[in-house]
Structures are given as structure tokens and as C-alpha cells.
Amino acid sequence: MSTKGLKEFLTDNLNELKGKGLYNTIDPLESANGPVITINGKKLINLSSNNYLGLATDTRLKEAAIKAIRTYGVGAGAVRTINGTFDIHLELEEKLADFKQTEAAIAYQSGFNCNMAAISAVMDQCDAILSDELNHASIIDGCRLSKATVIRYAHSDMEDLRVKAKQAISSGQYDKIMVITDGVFSMDGDIAKLPEIVKIADEMGLITYVDDAHGSGVLGNGAGTVKHFGLSDKIDFQIGTLSKAIGVVGGYVAGRRELIEWLKVRSRPFLFSTSLTPADVAGSIKAIELLTESTALNKKLWENADYLKAGLTKLGFNIGASETPITPCIIGEETKTQAFSTRLYEEGVYAKSIVFPTVPKGTGRVRNMPTAAHTKEMLDEALAIYEKVGKELGIT
Ligand code: PMP
User: Fold this and answer.
1) Ligand 1 pocket: which of 116, 243, 246 to mutate (most atoms <8 Å of CB)?
2) Would the pTM of this model clear 0.90, i.e. be above it?
């Protein structure tokens, strides 16, 4: 493509996005991503972060990160397999394995990276992957990268999964078959039906893969969705992120020893991308220590989530199928959803609208993420604003 062709391609497509109202604008924060944030000089109650336990701004994590910077510097300086593995990377991986009750764990630079790395290191064109239709984008991309045949099953529909797994097996076309699901689905806050998935996988000999980005730190007293269901020995791949409840950045796979050993020799982001920074590693270690020592933050998160959910439901909002702190207010029509989010912003609440194509047409929503760091007063103030704006727009 000539440079002129590229320019046309970019302007045409950007204009099309803008014309359809699908162009993402970004509001830069002028503060930490805590329960109250500052944007454009305006203070807002923040219901949009994944900082579930408030650890992103926790003093104990900050101190650990600063100490690690003093000892090891700001950058790792190399990929893990050259000389970018520090003693603290190994300590983090041991702590993650204990946290997830598995034999071993491997850390990556992000949760997104982790799905790209892990799926493609194990699955190939001779294999099939059964993937929930609402799985996260990084799972979709990891599946594509692997070149395995991807068979989507209807969201949490166990009959559809069973039928499609049977078809895949009886076709005789595939060497390995894997079932992949999010532990907690990020748009609706519903929990995957792991006991049924494990039952089907056991019966049919499927590899099991759970991305618990939104379940870790949240379910199972903090240990995640797999622990919540008592299935730690039944899931081959437990994926997590260090970027949400853990409060830092990074991702990991926890599983049996030989799986982790394989990922250390075969997964490309581990081999070819510079390792997590010392500050990220030390902050994450501290977070896991805190979660292991006490469930107080997890309890506070649930207390706040239950309070907000009850308040929104009482006001007449539709919070859909949410079973976790992820609390959508489903508005429906796209422009109304966006107008609702804008009015919340004007009144002092930051809760982003999520519309088509991220969610199906007509199911636009404002997604609320209460955290352990919110006070009851903040949640009351947010609910009062929801009440006012909901009435004003004829939603409640
Ligand atoms: N998996 C799921 C289910 C997620 O929701 C996310 C984050 N949006 C990721 C993976 C990616 O994690 P990270 O932000 O650490 O890259």
C-alpha cells in the first residue's frame, strides 16, 4: 500500500468510527486510580477501575515497589531467559503457585500477553478449542494465534458445550481438545459454571483453561473462582492477572510443574519480551502476602458490592445476571446509555458506558466496579446521583 493509500485508509476508517459514535475518547486521570479520581480538575466517585481491593494505591505495596527499585533499578534489562530473571521473579512465581494451590506458576508482562502466550504454546493446527462466546479478547486472540480450530459455544450453555465437544471428538479430526472460559465474565459479572465444565471435561478428556482475571482477589475468599468451587486439582490452566485485584500489572499461569516448565521454554512473550519490572514484581509479592494473611479487604469488597447492588436494584435499575462486584446497569439503547454516563459524570460519578459492539445491540450498560477502598458515604453519594439521573432520563 502506498503512503497515500495508508492515509486514506486511516482517515476513512477513523471518520467512519466517529460517524457511528464508536470512537473511543480517553479521559486522562490527574490522580491515582483510587475510589475518588480527578479528571479535568473535577473530582469524581470512581466506579470504573478494576482496582477491586484498593491495592493499586496501598502504602505497603508502594513501599515494597520503592525498595525494589532501590535494589534492582527500574527496568529488568533483559528477557527472562537471558538475564532478566531476578530472585524476586522466582519468589513471585512460588507465591502465585501457593496462592492458587498448584505445583508451579509462571509470570508474564500482562494478562493479555499471558493468554496469547499460554494458548499458542500448547495448542496448534491439529487441535480444537471450545471457547465461550463471551470470552475476553485476549483469549480470542490467543486462540487465533495458536491456529487451532475454534468452536464457540453459547454463553455458559452447558448443553451446547456438551454437544459441540461430542461432535469435535467424534469427527476424529483433532489431537487435543481444550475448553476455555473466563472465570467471571467482565461485562455481566456472572460466574462460569465450572463444576459442569469440569464434569464434561472429565467425561470427554478435555484440557481445561480458566482465565480468572476478574475472579482472583474476589471469589473464594480471594483465591479465585477455581478455589470458590473447590476445583483446584481439576483445572489444567489457571490464568490470572496482576493488574486488577492485585493492583499492579502483569499476568500469570498456575498449573502443574511440567506445564509451567513447557511454557518457560516455549511461550514467546517469556522468551522474547523483557520481563516484569522489579517494582511490579515486588508490589505483586506484597499484594499476595496481604491476601494470604487476611481476608479483610476481600470482605470489605463484598460488603461494598452487596451494598451498591442492593441500592441500585432498590432504585429500579436492572443489574442483569451479576453475581460478583461487577455491576452493570443495563439501560438498553446506545445513545441513552451514553447520555446516562455523561450525566453521571456531570453530577460527579465516573462510570463508563459500554455499548455495541463490545456488548450486543440494545444491551448498552453503565458498568460499576465498587472496590474495598470505597466508603459507605461515597457509595451513598453515588446512589443519590444515580437516583437523580435515572429519574431525569426516564430510566427508573
Ligand atoms: N482476561 C480477562 C478476562 C480480562 O478481563 C482482562 C483485562 N481486561 C485480561 C485478560 C487482560 O489482563 P491485563 O489487563 O492484565 O492485560
Assistant:
1) 243
2) yes
